[in-house]
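Consider a typical record:
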Amino acid sequence: MSRILRKYRVRGNSNAMKKYLFIIIIAVFVAACGGSGSESGNSNTGTENARVEVKTELAKTVEIPTYFEATGTLASDAESNVAPTIGGKIVRVNFDVGSYVRKGAPMVELDAGDARIRLNQAKAQANQARKTVKQAEAGVEQAIANLRQAQIRLGVKDGETFAIKDFSQVISVTAQLDLAEKELIRYTQLLESGDVSRSVYDQKKAARDGLRGQLAEARSNAAVAIKAITSAEKAVSVARTQVGNANAAVATAETQVAQAEKAVRDNTIYAPISGYISERNADPGEFISPNQPNAKLATIVRTAVLRLKIDVPEQSIGKVAVGQGVSAQVSAYPDRKFAGTVTRILPSLNPQSRTLTVEAEVDNVNGMLKPGQFATVRITQSKPAPAVMVPAKAVRALGERNVVFIIKDGVALERQVKVGLLEDDMIEIKQGLQENETVAVTNVEKLTDGSIVAQ
């Protein structure tokens, strides 16, 4: 500006100089006013930026389950060591560590060549024994047919007794002989009185003697017929005994077949339970025997349901009962809870740790849990209790302190709290907050004590 003034002094134009001085003064004034206005505008913008947009919710009292905490260890529900029942050479292994097997699935196959040979031999013997049974049954049928023929000859039925005197020929000849004997007696008297001749007498005596011979023959025939029936009955009995022996031989042969079939099956080792393979000690080409030390081929653990072994402190054993619900958390899944139920309580305390071991069964969802994991356990009590709850996102951790920000008259007030049970997305406030107080639930990390908020 001094150079401008010098310029106009040189020229001696005072009016022009006044005109330019006026313009410069106005420009400086406008610039000063503009700068002041700009600063004022920046100040207002800073005030607006200091406000923190938050959403709020009211602290509310709800009934929540009460619990006490303990520690526990997860274990498999069942564990089975797979071992051979017979010796043999391994030809195939159908599993590996970590694989899942179902109950009854073939795991190890041994060389079953010799066992199959013995099975074929046993089947051949069984077939021969069955043929013998058929032959014996045919013998029974023939013996029964012979018996029926003998019975028909004598006119008797099964179970009836028969005597020689009852034979029809014997009866007929006996009657004739009785009559001849009587006539001979009468003719003897007539011969003595001289009423008949000796020749007539001799004829009657010869007739009587002939009938005696016929009776003896009839008796002999009857004895032969009876003997034939007796022999036929004995033959039937013998034939039936042969059938019984043949059937016994079939049963023995079938038993041998069953044993041979079992020997073939024993060459395949099946999974005793469903589960995961935790250990493998079998390879093709090895010879194994149940008499060898440590003959274990594999270990299967069942993990669909796990046993949670909980150590309950002595002062809390009265709070545990079978059927209570438990909630377990493991470090591998800090945001997950695994539900279970108390199923067993040991009868005595551990004398060293002074704790009571309680077992709960926990469903292993998607196989996430593993035997051997350490768990923090909450055992639910029977009666729920009222608790002040707020959204978990309303709580901010500052070092070892937990705080919430109460919103009152557009201002955030920091309040230190003591937290308790976490239920889903809500957390219990044990101390430091009252029911129906308004707390910030968003942008909590941007708040400080006394922050101006906008809702």
